[in-house]
Structures are given as C-alpha cells and as structure tokens.
C-alpha cells in the first residue's frame, strides 16, 4: 500500500502523455444507475470486456503507481495471462499488453506488486511465480504488446494466491503443494532473483492471507512480522519474523463456518474483517462479514457480524481509512463505513453493481476483486464482465451535483483552448493545478465564465472551486 502523498487533494493529477484512442464520456451515477449498472455514489469511468482483453475469463487484480511519472496502471488477472492497463486517462484507458501464462490457462491467477515489479502466480500446473518489471510499461510504443517475463521462480508449481509484505521484502505464496498449502516464503529483496526462504505448514491450507509488520495495539508484537491466514475453517495468527522458526500465536474459529476465505485489518490493526465464501449459500445469510477484535493477538475474539442488503456471496475486501471496499459476486462493489466499528456498527454508504441481472447467492457472473488503493480515487474492479474503472461521482470528469444544491458545469471536457464554467450560484475563485499540485491558473468568476487554457500542456488537471474539485482533460 502506498504512503499518502503530501499533496492536499484526494485526487492525484497524472499527465496524459499520449492519446491513442478517442476519448469516451464517463458515466456518473444518477438516479441509481451509471448507464446499465445499478449504483450509489460511484460512477463508471471506463470498461474493457473479457474479449477486449483477449481472454475468456477475468479474475483477480492489483495496481501500480509509477513514482517517477505519477501514472497509474491496473494489473488484471486473466485465464490465459496478465493484462497491464494504463489508467492515467481514466475515461480513455489503454491496454498496453499482456504477459501470457507461464504454462497453461487457469480460472485462478493472482498478482501483487513490490517496488516496480509484479509477482504473478496461478493454479495452472507447474506455473510457479512470474516476475515482470513494470517499468517496461513506460516505453510501450505500439499497444497492445505481448510481454515476456523478466524472471521466474520455480520453488512451487501451482499456487492459489500470493501475498507481499512490502516492508520486509518477502512474498508468500499460499495454497501451493508445498508446506501443506501453508505460506511458502520467498525473499524478493532482489526482485529479479527471488530465493526460497522456508515456509509454514501448520493450521491447515491457507486460501488467502494478510501479512504485516505489526504496529497495532498488542505491544507484545510491535515490529514483528505477523501472518493472518484465512485457512478454510479457521483464522490463524502466526509470528513469521524468524523465517526458520515461525511461531503460532493463536487461532480462532466462528459459528456457522462455510469457507474461511479472505480478510483485512483496519488501519489501526485492531479489527480484522473476514469474509466467508459459502455461508450465504450454506446458511441463508445476506452477505456476511465477520468482525474480529485483535486487541490481544494471543486471545482474539469475534466482536460482531454484519449482514449487507443483498444475498450475494462476498469475495475479496480491503480497507482504506474508514471505508471497507468489498467485492461481491453478484452485487458488485459495496462500500461500507467502518468509522463506528468500535461501537459494533458498520454501514453501507455506496456501491457499484457489475452484475445487474441478479443479487442472488451464486458464483456466476461474479465480481472477484476490488483494488481501492490508488491515491487518485480511481477504483479497479475485475471479474465477470471484465475490467471496470470506477470512482466517486465527485472524482469524475463530468458535470457534478455538489453540496448545498450548487450545480457547476465545466465544459468541454476534454478541452483544447478554453474551459467554460456555469453554475446556479456565483462560482467565486477557480484554481487549476498540475501534476505536482502547483497552481497553473487562477480566475474569479460569477455564475458563468471562460478560462483560457491554450498555454497549458495537454494532460489531466484539477479545477478546484469552493464547492469541490473537478478532473478535466486537456488535449
């Protein structure tokens, strides 16, 4: 997870270095829909189908921000490989290319990032771990390209998932045929030369995990590397600081277990939010999230359970600040406010449904993953239907309905020489910022006005008014 920038905006402005295809309009969430997709507060930026990606099936996803250029990229798992998508122009994404699978196709593929490298595993037999240098994405002249891997690790064959602790420079393959399916440790401090570092074979097969350098409330483990495994029918907490001597701290189960699937810490590492993949089918729950109190890692407890508004099966979920972003197979991405989690209360505050046909408890058509960690506010969704790029309405480059019933239109967008602004109230000060958060232009307007932008380089900028911020593209 990237460290928060000192830039004061919630949106990182990325320069649009090239425009390869026509620009398409983003679709805000209005009256409960963004085009054909049910929604609340989140609109559609762009969409690529499975066919657009040259695949039959889309599974997991992750993201990478190039710290040199500021550009953002989506990394999308496919049945036949991994796709790399430039999303720096959010309503004009570009498929830069695909890294084919190392062996054969598979429904399951997972990718994570350390520094400027992607690490990819799959359930395909003999696949091992592919390493891809993401800096190569800067120099793609004729997309889409077919890439080759930069390195390969063959210490295991198939794997269900890969987890990386970017602070310790270790990767952990889970669900392999080694260590009884427990985490397989890999030193990736030299990404092109990954090396085996042991493993942990207790507490059942690990389906997924989160691994952190602990900085939570239990002072006994500050600075230790802690593994939290979602292990089919139990959550395992293990101290893996000493790779040669991993030590179980504790395990915890819960009532009405279906399949202990995946979970994520709150930012303060006090609570752990867990999804069970089959409890909705097996027990008739609405989408259920289990919230554990990890105040004492030696004695974790189940704090409470939350059920969402639909019957859909949950899959992967991640926390950013006080929001929990949860992928559901047939109910899309649900966004849950967890700011009152200590009071045993969490509340849904938005969603984007990638499967309009049904919210039932079924796997078909499913959304697999949500990646909500881009500082720009761009959110990547992947699964049935392909790749979706979404954002809060206020982060879309479209006319926005702002607070206090103030409406500000900014057009044309994309623009070339001039921006026009129009509102139902005096607009006041308008400031345009560049990639580095530097002020490029400022002007004071009444209820309408024009701003000459012909001297600005083409790219993506933020137009900031007293009522909010608007993303605009200059071409």
User: Structural class of the helices, strands and pairings?
Assistant: mainly beta
Task: Quote the distance from N terminus to C terminus.
Answer: 31 Å
Let me know the average pLDDT.
Answer: 90
* Largest beta-sheet characterization: 6 strands, antiparallel
Number of helices: 1
For the record, what CATH class of the largest domain applies? Mainly Beta
Oligomer: single chain
Silhouette: globular
Textual characterization of the structure:
There is one protein chain. The chain is mainly beta. The chain has two domains: 33-395, YVTN repeat-like/Quinoprotein amine dehydrogenase (Methylamine Dehydrogenase, Chain H, 7 Propeller), CATH 2.130.10; 400-474, Macroglobulin (MG2) domain (Immunoglobulin-like), CATH 2.60.40.1930. The protein is 1% helix and 46% strand. It contains one helix and 39 strands. It has one helix at 279-283, and strands at 33-34, 37-40, 42-48, 58-65, 72-78, 81-86, 94-100, 109-114, 117-122, 129-133, 145-146, 151-153, 161-165, 170-174, 184-187, 195-199, 208-213, 225-230, 235-239, 247-252, 260-265, 271-276, 288-293, 301-307, 314-320, 323-328, 332-337, 347-352, 367-371, 379-383, 386-392, 400-401, 407-411, 418-423, 428-433, 439-445, 448-452, 459-465, 468-474. The strands form nine sheets. Strands 1-2-28-27-26-25 form a six-stranded antiparallel β-sheet, with no helix packed on it. A five-stranded mixed β-sheet has the order 4-5-6-7-11, with no helix packed on it. Strands 3-31-30-29 form a four-stranded antiparallel β-sheet, with no helix packed on it. A hairpin with a 3-residue loop joins β26 and β27 (332-337).
């Amino acid at each position: 997870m990237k460290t928060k920038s000192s830039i004061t905006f919630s949106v990182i402005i990325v320069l649009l270095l090239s425009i390869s295809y026509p620009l398409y309009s983003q679709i805000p969430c209005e009256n409960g829909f963004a085009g054909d997709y049910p929604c609340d507060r989140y609109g559609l930026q762009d969409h690529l189908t499975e066919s657009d990606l040259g695949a039959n099936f889309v599974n997991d996803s992750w993201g990478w921000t190039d710290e040199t250029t500021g550009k953002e990229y989506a990394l999308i798992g496919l049945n036949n490989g991994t796709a790399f998508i430039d999303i720096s122009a959010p309503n004009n994404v570009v498929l830069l290319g695909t890294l084919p699978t190392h062996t054969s196709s598979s429904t399951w593929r997972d990718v994570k990032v350390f520094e400027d490298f992607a690490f990819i595993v799959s359930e395909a037999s003999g696949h091992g771990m592919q390493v891809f240098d993401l800096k190569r994405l800067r120099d793609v002249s004729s997309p889409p390209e077919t890439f080759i891997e930069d390195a390969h690790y063959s210490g295991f064959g198939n794997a269900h998932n890969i987890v990386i602790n970017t602070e310790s420079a270790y990767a952990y393959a889970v669900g392999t045929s080694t260590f009884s399916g427990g985490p397989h440790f890999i030193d990736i401090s030299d990404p092109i030369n990954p090396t085996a570092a042991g493993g942990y074979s207790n507490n059942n097969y690990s389906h997924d995990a989160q691994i952190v350098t602990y900085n939570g409330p239990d002072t006994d483990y500050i600075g230790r590397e802690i593994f939290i495994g979602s292990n089919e029918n139990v959550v395992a907490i293990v101290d893996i600081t000493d790779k040669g001597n991993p030590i179980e701290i504790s395990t915890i189960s819960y009532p009405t277990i279906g399949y202990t699937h995946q979970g994520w810490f709150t930012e303060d590492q006090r609570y752990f939010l867990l999804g069970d993949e089959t409890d909705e089918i097996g027990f008739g729950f609405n989408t259920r999230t289990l919230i554990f109190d990890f105040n004492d890692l030696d004695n974790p407890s189940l704090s409470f359970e939350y059920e969402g508004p639909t019957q859909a099966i949950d899959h992967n979920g991640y926390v950013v600040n006080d929001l929990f972003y949860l992928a559901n197979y047939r109910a899309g991405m649900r966004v849950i406010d967890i700011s009152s989690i200590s009071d045993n209360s969490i509340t849904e505050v938005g969603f984007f449904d990638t499967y309009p046909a049904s919210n039932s408890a079924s796997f078909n058509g499913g959304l697999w993953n949500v990646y909500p960690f881009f500082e720009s506010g761009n959110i990547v969704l992947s699964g049935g239907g392909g790749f979706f790029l979404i954002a809060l309405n206020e982060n879309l480059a479209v006319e926005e309905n702002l607070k206090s019933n103030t409406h500000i239109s900014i057009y044309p967008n994309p623009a070339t020489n001039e921006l026009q602004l129009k509102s139902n109230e005096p607009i006041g000060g308008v400031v345009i910022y560049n990639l580095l958060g530097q002020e490029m232009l400022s002007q004071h307007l009444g209820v309408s006005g024009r701003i000459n932008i012909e001297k600005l380089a083409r790219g993506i900028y933020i137009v900031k008014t007293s009522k909010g911020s608007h993303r605009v593209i200059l071409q």
